[in-house]
Write a structure and sequence with these properties.
Number of helices: 1
Strand order of the largest sheet: 1-2
Order of helices and strands: EEH
Shape: flat
Strand content: 5-15%
Structural class: alpha+beta
Length: 66
């Protein structure tokens, strides 16, 4: 079936790229990276919390059975 996406059961998240932006998907699209480092740090700590860090904390996500 064309356009059909088969789910793989793999967890996924979308994180912000930080900064300010506008005109998405147009010739006038722009991005201003002011403060973008903050969102990178938030993204990294979110991922580390989800998967856990050995010696620091258990993962928030449950392991999938194989």
């Amino acid at each position: 079936m064309q356009g059909h996406v088969e789910p793989l059961g793999i967890p996924a998240i979308i994180l912000s790229n930080g900064g300010e932006s506008g005109g998405w998907h147009s010739p006038g699209e722009w991005w201003k990276p002011d403060g973008a480092w903050k969102d990178a740090q938030i993204g990294l700590t979110t991922i580390l919390a989800l998967v856990g860090v050995q010696g620091m904390g258990e993962p928030l996500l449950q392991k999938r059975p194989r």
